[in-house]
Design goal:
With about 120 residues, this protein is mainly alpha-helical. About 55% of the residues lie in helices and about 5% in strands.
């Protein structure tokens, strides 16, 4: 089985009416507003709608790290997620720019003056 398709996550930050989204393969787009306002129900939906336990576990861990990053207003929880779960597969020197962009994204997403949902 090709597991590379399970190792992708897309973060969309456009001028979408429903706000920024996180997209995993084989699951519906997840709005940042859901992460902020309805996290427990979102976690139940992920558990119920996913037959692949390993993928589901990684999704839940990533979503918890993303929620923590939003609450802490920096990407550190996401860096820790990748270090703990994928540290032997990730060259952090090569992806430092990604974490810098995530910091900017999180700063904008948590700005109190952002358009509300």
């Amino acid at each position: 089985m090709d597991t590379s398709k399970y190792r992708q996550v897309i973060i969309v930050n456009g001028e979408l009416p429903y706000g920024p989204q996180i997209v995993f393969p084989f699951f519906r787009p997840i709005s940042l507003y859901e992460i902020e306002d309805d996290f427990d129900n979102l976690m139940r939906e992920i558990e119920e709608d996913n037959g692949d336990v390993e993928f589901m576990d990684q999704m839940i861990l990533f979503m918890q790290a993303f929620k923590d990053a939003l609450e802490e207003k920096n990407s550190d929880p996401l860096v820790y997620y990748f270090m703990i779960n994928h540290g032997n597969e990730v060259d952090f020197n090569q992806i430092q720019d990604v974490f810098d962009v995530l910091d900017d994204f999180i700063e904008k997403a948590t700005d109190e003056n952002r358009p509300m949902h």
